[in-house]
Amino acid sequence: MMDEKWLTKLIRNCLRQYGYDAESLPLTDLEWKQLREKILSAKTTDEEMDMYEIVNDVVYEYITK
């Protein structure tokens, strides 16, 4: 199992790259959990895909929905 804090940090860093932070885009605990689960699911589906690429894809999809 991937470290939850590490995954949260990756998501937070990716959000910052898109110009978001905790104040401009506050996420609930449930939203954090859903993002982590979606990333882990994608990694399980495509083990060859780079983790940073998966995080980027999931975060991009989240902020553009």
How would you characterize this protein structure?
This is YqzH-like protein. This protein has a domain of 38 residues. Helix content is 69%, strand content 0%. The protein has three helices and no strands. Helix 1 crosses helix 3 and helix 2 crosses helix 3. The radius of gyration is 11 Å and the shape is globular.
Give short descriptive properties of this protein.
65 residues
Major sheet: none
Fraction in beta strands? under 5%
List SSEs in N-to-C order. Answer: HHH
End-to-end C-alpha gap: 28 Å
What number is the mean pLDDT? 93
- The strand count comes to 0
> Helix- and strand-based class?
mainly alpha
Query: What sort of overall outline do the alpha carbons produce when their principal axes are compared?
Result: globular
Low-pLDDT ranges? none
Could you estimate the helical fraction of the residues in percent?
A: 55-70%
Q: How large, in whole angstroms, is the Cα Rg?
A: 11 Å
Number of helices: 3
List the helices and strands and how they pair.
Elements: H1 4-17, H2 29-45, H3 51-64
Quick structural overview:
This protein is mainly α. It contains three helices and no strands.
